[in-house]
Write a structure and sequence with these properties.
- The chain folds into 2 domains: 2-135; 144-291, Rossmann fold (3-Layer(aba) Sandwich), CATH 3.40.50.11350.
- The protein is 34% helix and 15% strand.
- It contains 12 helices and 11 strands.
- The strands form 2 sheets. It has a 6-stranded parallel β-sheet with strand order 8-7-6-9-10-11, sandwiched between helices.
- The longest helix is centred in the N-terminal third of the chain and has 17 residues, at 10-26.
- The chain is globular and about 60 Å long.
- The N and C termini lie far apart (40 Å).
C-alpha cells in the first residue's frame, strides 16, 4: 500500500494526493490518505479533496499507520525524522521528500510506504495526467454569479490573475519562506500577455482584493472576483481553470488553477522567485510555462 500524508491548503493537498496516486498506480498498490493531523489543524478549510473534487479514496486507520511506521507514527518523531541527520532512523517505509525539486528515485519505491512531503512537481504525476485530470474534476457545477462569470469567460480572451497576500504578509514564518510577488512582476506579466493575446480581459483573484484595487493598475478590462469566501473559496480555482490564459502567484492554489486548464495553447506566467529560502523550485513550473 501507499499512504500519503495530507496536510495544508487545497493546493498542497492536491500535490500530495497526485504523487501518491501515481506511485500506487505504477506499482498496482492501494492508495490511502493519512488525514489524522487535520483534527488539530486550524488553517485554511480542512481536508477538501473529497468535498471539492470527484476523488474517490480512503483514509487510513491509526492501526494501519502504526503497522507501517511503528514508533515513527508519533507526531514528534516524524518531525524529528524529517531532518537529514536522522535519515538513518526512518526505516524502509517512512519516505521523506529529500528535497523540494523532483526526486528521480521516487518511482524506485516498490514496497509499502508512507509518503511525507509536499511533492510539488508535475513530474511526479505526468505519466498519469489523464487520471489526475479526471480525479480533479469539480464535483459541483458553478451556480448563480459564478455560472454567469463562467459563461462570460467562454466568449472572450479571459486571463486569470492571482495575487496572494494573506499569510504571506501577516505570518512571520511564511514571510521567511515565501517570496511576495511584487507589482513589477504583475506589470511584466500583463505586458507579456497583451503583446500576444488580442483583447484580453483580466479576472483578478486575491485574498486581498482591496489592496489589489488600490495598488495594481491593470490598464486593461478587468473583473474583480471577490465573492467566493471560506468553504466556497475553492470556486476561485474552478473559475481560474476556465480562463484561457493565466498569471499565477507563487501559490499552489493558482498553480493548479492554471494546470487544470487543459488547453495546449494556453499562456501561463509564473514568478521566477517562489521562495525566499534556498528551496530549489526548478521542477515546480512545467516547461511550457513562462517565468518572469
Amino acid at each position: 500500500m501507499v499512504v500519503s500524508y495530507i496536510l495544508g491548503g487545497i493546493g498542497n493537498q492536491m500535490f500530495q494526493y497526485a504523487a501518491g496516486r501515481a506511485l500506487a498506480l505504477t506499482n498496482s498498490q492501494k492508495h490511502l490518505l493519512d488525514l489524522s493531523d487535520f483534527s488539530d489543524y486550524r488553517l485554511h478549510h480542512g481536508f477538501e479533496l473529497c468535498r471539492v473534487f470527484n476523488v474517490v479514496t480512503e483514509s487510513t486507520e491509526t492501526s494501519t499507520v502504526h503497522q507501517l511506521l511503528g514508533w515513527r507514527e508519533n507526531y514528534l518523531a516524524r518531525k524529528v525524522l524529517r531532518r537529514t541527520q536522522f535519515a538513518g532512523l526512518r526505516g524502509k517505509t517512512f519516505v521523506v521528500e529529500p528535497h523540494f525539486n523532483y526526486w528521480p528515485d521516487f518511482f524506485n519505491l516498490t514496497g509499502d510506504c508512507y509518503l511525507y512531503g509536499y511533492w510539488q512537481s508535475e513530474l511526479y504525476f505526468k505519466a498519469i495526467e489523464s487520471v489526475i485530470r479526471q480525479d480533479f474534476t469539480f464535483r459541483e457545477p458553478l451556480k448563480e454569479h459564478n455560472a454567469e462569470l463562467a459563461l462570460e469567460m467562454a466568449t472572450i480572451q479571459a486571463v486569470s490573475l492571482h495575487v496572494r497576500r494573506g499569510d504571506y504578509v501577516s505570518d512571520p514564518k511564511n514571510r521567511n519562506v515565501m517570496a511576495i510577488c511584487d507589482l513589477e512582476y504583475y506589470r511584466k506579466a500583463i505586458s507579456y500577455v497583451v503583446e500576444r493575446v488580442d483583447c484580453p480581459v483580466f479576472y483578478i483573484f486575491s485574498d486581498d482584493v482591496p489592496w489589489v484595487k488600490q495598488n495594481l493598475s491593470v490598464g486593461f478590462p478587468c473583473v474583480y472576483v471577490e465573492h467566493n469566501r471560506s468553504a466556497e473559496s475553492y470556486r476561485d480555482m474552478q473559475l481560474m481553470s476556465l480562463c484561457r490564459h493565466h498569471v499565477i502567484a507563487n501559490s499552489s492554489f493558482s498553480w493548479w488553477g492554471a494546470w487544470l486548464n487543459a488547453n495546449p495553447a494556453k499562456i501561463v506566467i509564473a514568478p521566477k522567485h517562489w521562495f525566499r529560502n534556498r528551496n530549489d523550485d526548478g521542477d515546480l513550473i512545467p516547461d511550457e510555462w513562462v517565468r518572469l
